[in-house]
Design goal:
binds adenosine-5'-diphosphate, 267 residues, 15% strand
Length: 267
């Protein structure tokens, strides 16, 4: 059966890319590169939004723990971003794919001219069969790292903004959990996975707990906000577990995976 080609944005979080020791999970990087390359080989367009820079930078700089000081966090982001891209470049390179780094700030989205340039850059990269890898420009901005009233909040929101900007068909948020539950499964054994959500409202937000894992940042709330933004623009969103990136094959086959937030019809 031939797939209709799709433009998909895949977001992967820190807790998927690093282990409890704060080290990179090389197998996840490798699997992700293989599966995304394969999905592109099937005729689809792929954009990856990847977190993990600070955690990986902290480990590379041999800091005893995640620093509290902003300037050190930003230094760790600069070191970790480099390491992240090195790993992606290497693993995607095995599959003969070229990747490109795009670092964004919230302010870039407000300025119309910058926004247009950005859309053109994405378009040019995708036309060339290149896989853009996006992250917030943490060494310059502080929205993801510090601010309480954050625009991107973390890369969940950034991934939705990118999906809207690039008029993607689908946004897949890979997390450390199988999907969206009726309560935080880490706090309640009776939590049940919700496989399909048509409308995100106040009650949905009440089901999301606070910030997530120690290494992750946003928790489910920022994922819901991201899903809210993307679905309002007609883009369906899937939240699923990133521990096995092969799950993306099932996503592309339209199989029931994780939680699907149904995109509103576009007018
Ligand atoms: P990532 O690094 O993948 O973005 P986060 O740690 O930021 O991951 O967010 C995922 C976490 O959100 C889960 O591990 C879970 O503890 C928490 N969470 C809170 N409420 C819910 C919910 N209703 N359903 C699923 N997970 C939830």
């Amino acid at each position: 059966m031939k797939h209709k080609s799709k433009r998909i944005v895949v977001k992967v979080g820190t807790s998927t890319l690093t282990n409890e020791l704060g080290n990179s999970k090389l197998r996840t990087f490798e699997d992700l590169a293989m599966v995304l390359s394969d999905i592109q080989n099937m005729g689809n367009e792929v954009i990856l939004v990847s977190s993990g820079a600070i955690a990986i930078g902290v480990q590379k700089m041999r800091l005893p723990e995640k620093p509290r000081e902003l300037r050190l966090k930003q230094a760790a982001a600069a070191v970790g971003q480099c390491e992240n891209m090195f790993l992606y470049d290497k693993f995607f390179g095995y599959y003969n794919k070229t990747v490109a780094q795009i670092l964004l700030n919230a302010e870039d989205m407000v300025d119309e001219e910058k926004k247009e340039n950005l859309v053109n850059t994405f378009q040019a990269l995708l036309e060339q069969g290149i896989i853009p890898i996006v992250n917030e420009n943490d060494s310059v901005s502080y929205t993801e790292i510090e601010s309480e009233s954050k625009l991107f909040g973390d890369n969940d929101m950034l991934s939705a903004v990118v999906a809207v900007l690039c008029q993607a068909d689908l946004l897949v948020i890979l997390s450390d959990i199988d999907g969206f539950y009726d309560k935080d499964p880490r706090l309640s054994k009776t939590a049940r996975l919700i496989s399909r959500i048509e409308t995100i409202d106040e009650n949905t937000y009440k089901l999301a707990g606070g910030a997530g894992s120690r290494r992750g940042t946003g928790g489910m709330r920022t994922k819901l906000e991201a899903a809210d933004l993307a679905t309002a623009q007609g883009i369906s969103v899937i939240i699923t577990n990133g521990k096995n990136p092969h799950v993306l094959y099932d996503v592309m086959d339209g199989k029931k995976v994780g939680t699907l937030f149904v995109g509103k019809p576009r007018d």
